[in-house]
Design goal:
Blueprint lengths: L2 H13 L23 H15 L5 H6 L3 H13 L1
């Protein structure tokens, strides 16, 4: 399993407690549209991701991340920085 695949698997596991509608999550899943997350849910979830990987996702980066796949890519890059 590649590092990116491991990250994707872990990110999807971290999404589950926030997935109140039981949506089937893929890398194309959009946080706002598909999961219907509000801003508070996003903040809680981002805090979990930051704690899990010991990274910081800026507000500008958050604004650009719309899908699970984009988040996985961002986490992968930030972990290597």
């Amino acid at each position: 399993m590649t590092d990116r695949n491991a990250t994707a698997t872990r990110v999807m596991a971290l999404i589950e407690p926030f997935n109140k509608k039981g949506i089937a999550v893929t890398e194309a899943t959009r946080f706002a549209q598909d999961l219907e997350w509000d801003s508070l849910t996003v903040l809680d979830f981002v805090a979990n991701i930051e704690d899990e990987y010991d990274i910081l996702i800026t507000m500008n980066q958050q604004a650009e991340i719309e899908t699970v796949g984009q988040l996985v890519d961002a986490v992968t890059v930030l972990k290597e920085a």
